[in-house]
Amino acid sequence: MSVFITRKIPEAGLERLRAAGVAFEIGEMDGEKAIARDDVLDGVRRHDVLLSLLTERVDREVLTANPQLRGVSNMAVGLDNVDLAAAEELGIPVGNTPGVLTDATADLTWALLLAAARRVPEAHDYMAGGRYSIWGPELLCGVDVGPGASGCRKTLGIVGFGRIGVAVAQRARGFDMDVVACGSPRSRDAMTAASVEPLEFDELLERSDFVSLHCPLTPSTRHLIGVEQLLRMKRSAILINTARGPVVDERALVEALRGGEIRAAGLDVFEDEPLMAPGLVELPNVVILPHIGSATHETRDRMATMAADNAIEFLRG
Ligand code: GLV
Predict the structure, then answer these.
(1) Atom of ligand 1 nearest to the CA of 96
(2) Which of 59, 161, 221, 260 has the greatest CB tally within 10 Å of its CB?
(3) What is the per-residue pLDDT for 98?
(4) Where do the domains of the chain lie, and which CATH numbers do they carry?
């Protein structure tokens, strides 16, 4: 009985497997390289459980490569890279890593929000480029996140009120913001508990100064933010995406940012990672990160441990 791990995961996860006496093989050891599709298929054929990352497409071909496959443990909370319908049909259990990355992802959401509002990367480049010659009253002005000098409370609109949406809302309290949210009917209780005003999606877009996306990627959330939604947002609004890239029509976003339809965006995820839509990187009003929402040592260790535990459970039936 053994586990095929597509790409190298943190040592904490490997330790967990060793402690349980579980044999494993790692497909790609170089953390900056993808694993070839053929190597995934080959690994699945030769082992009993697949431990995958969000970079691998676990589709029907992978799931049927080994009729004895006992489970897929995905080291991510998102499962859009796994064909869940096929897995269900084939009776293959699938695991993910919810809960352990909630705080890290909420923190990064705030890092992006503050960086976009206060133009932190632009200011950094300004310094690093040796352009700082004298302080000036209009140098690199951004916008308030809290009420600030105007005393005007800002509205944060959270799209998708699951664990991460809730954690983002909690952090907004420290900034004296009004928080509104939309999400599945199941999330209504969480909104009430967090004193967050539930709104319809369109109204949320119209009222929010900051819109932060926290929904999973499903067929119904693909391009949830497109031309029409960007036009509906305030021209002063800032969009933050730490969910999944395809939730936003990235080409439409580039146009909106270029044309001043919205003020700025903070993005940790992209439609076609690691690529970005043409023109995005040249825009001054965008903050871009390489999908590091859960990237703290503590969190990635917990994710790896949880993924290893899931793999062990699948091996044990
Ligand atoms: C990261 O994006 C995850 O889904 O864990």
Answers:
(1) 5
(2) 161
(3) 98
(4) 2-100+297-315 (3.40.50.720), 102-288 (3.40.50.720)
